Amino acid sequence: MGIRFLFLFTVALFVTSHVTRAELMEQKGESAQAVNKPISVKAFQPPSNDSIPDDEFGKMVRLGKNIFTHTGKYAADYVGNNQNCVNCHLDAGRLANSAPLWAAWVRYPAYRKKNKMVNTIQERIQGCFRYSMNGTPPPANGETIKALMSYAYWMAEGAPTGVKLPGQGYPKLNKPKMQPDYQRGAEVFAQNCALCHGADGQGVRQGDEQVFPPLWGKQAFNWGAGMHRINTAAAFIRANMPLGKGGSLSVQQAWDVAYYVNSHERPQDPRFEGNLEATKEAFHSHQCRYGDKVGKTVLGQSSK
Ligand code: HEC
Ligand code: HEC
């Protein structure tokens, strides 16, 4: 009762006062500056945003940046949920240890076990549209992919190519001492995450703006997205969440809360062809809860 009231009150505050995320965070005693602080000082520094050139190329770079930060607005045809690329690639894709674009740019083409082939950067970006954005991949030669490629290319200016740069992807996380646990995860969530993502995991939306992203349910990433894997989510969370306080959860807490977040229903895996067991067998032999029973629900039963 108490928590519910506090939650509703907080949401009412968000909705009625039309404040920005930075203001919201300041109200919560967070420093908005801290959010953009790179974790590793040794990481490659991408060029500053003011150095985007004022020409035809710069126009494409800017469009790519807009697509990346406001995906539902600038690439509406290809998005099927309320996520934006920047939700999992923080600081507009610049932040080390949150799968930054500059480190991605220099790694592709690369072999991926997920689809058992060498992927171009176009194909890699299409993958995030299909799964993380629960959408339809834009055509490889269309404007959306061209703009996103321009943005990534510009950001990687001066970076060594063909290597795994420090800060690429999410940092690998040690195994937890105890098996990840739903109840412990729920407690970590209530204490450290619900304030922004909501007790129901649905985040906060103001008009067209997703101030805090949903973590499960119809508007979240789908069952094929990398983030549905407990290990991937644990690594991301430990390095980057709570926002602006990366590294503050213990390794165990990060695993527990990742397990909890990913024990909720979300949109179907787009590779699903009608049989849950078959889809689980073909695509889910990793750390995830697809096909598991949680309470009365079998996860992975929802439609797209
Ligand atoms: C729900 C979270 C989420 C969203 C939203 C998302 N991604 Fe990703 N993305 C991931 C994860 C997870 C990975 C794999 C990171 C890892 O394990 O190294 C990834 C990887 C990538 C990579 C390759 C990174 C590398 O170093 O190999 C690119 C490029 C990329 N995403 C682009 C995008 C674009 C463009 C969008 C928006 C259209 C987007 N992503 C939206 C979660 C997300
Ligand atoms: C101060 C607010 C805040 C807190 C507290 C917070 N988050 Fe987040 N979280 C965000 C924001 C904002 C984003 C998206 C980043 C962006 O768009 O720049 C995000 C992104 C995420 C994502 C990836 C995006 C997605 O859409 O799936 C996950 C997973 C996540 N948070 C989990 C957690 C967990 C678990 C906790 C608690 C340990 C937590 N967050 C605490 C604000 C917060």
Your description of this structure?
With 304 residues, this protein is mainly alpha-helical. The protein folds into two domains: 112 residues, Cytochrome Bc1 Complex, Chain D, domain 2 (Orthogonal Bundle); 117 residues, Cytochrome Bc1 Complex, Chain D, domain 2 (Orthogonal Bundle), CATH 1.10.760. It is built from 13 helices and six strands. It has a two-stranded antiparallel ribbon with strand order 1-2. Helix 11 packs across helix 12. The site of one heme C has 26 residues, from helix 6 and helix 7.
Spatial sequence of strands, sheet with the most strands: 1-2
The CATH topology of the largest domain is what?
Answer: Cytochrome Bc1 Complex, Chain D, domain 2
How does the helix and strand content classify structurally? mainly alpha
Radius of gyration: 19 Å
Arithmetic mean pLDDT: 90
Would you count the extended β strands for me?
A: 6
**How many separate structural domains?**
2
| CATH superfamily annotation of the largest domain | Cytochrome c-like domain
The helix count comes to 13
Low-confidence stretches: 1-19, 29-41
Under the CATH scheme, the architecture of the largest domain is Orthogonal Bundle
Helix and strand layout, with pairings?
Layout: H1 2-17, H2 21-27, H3 56-69, H4 71-74, H5 90-93, H6 101-105, E1 110-112, E2 117-119, H7 121-130, H8 143-155, H9 182-192, H10 194-197, E3 204-206, E4 209-212, H11 230-240, H12 251-261, H13 276-283, E5 293-294, E6 297-298
Helix pairs in contact: 3-8, 7-8, 9-12, 11-12
Bound molecules: heme C (HEC) (2 copies).
